[in-house]
Amino acid sequence: MQNTRLNGLLGAVTDQIGQLFQNPWRRTSLLLISLLFGFYVGTAISTTAGQMAQLDIVAAAILVVLTEVISRVVYSRSDRVRRSLPAELINTLKIGMTYSLFIDAFKLGS
Fold it and tell me: Is residue 19 in a domain?
């Protein structure tokens, strides 16, 4: 790529954001927000699919495929990819979504 001003600006911004989240407390808080957002997304998907009562199987299939793809990407790579912030954010989002679906299943089962 050419070294334009826009390219330099984007590079500087991404470097600053990367340095911002090198702090362990900020990184942990961002991962916690991702976990809670995944919990929210899982609850919203199960509630919406359950309300329409037509897309239950399709929504479940999409969530299973999405979960498996994320797991394959995160856990089959080297430690460098596994420790990157975007990979950890997507993985914690997946964990929150899965946890939400388990909680909804327990609520419906009792």
Answer: no
Residue 85 lies in a domain: yes
pLDDT in tens, 56-78: 778 888 888 999 999 888 888 76
For residue 66 the two structure tokens come to 């999405």
pLDDT of residue 98: 92
CA-based radius of gyration for the chain: 18
In a domain, 11, yes or no: no
For the record, the structure tokens of 92 come out as 């914690």
Burial of 82 (0-12, 13-18, 19+ CB in 10 A): middle
CB 101 within 8 A of CB 48: no
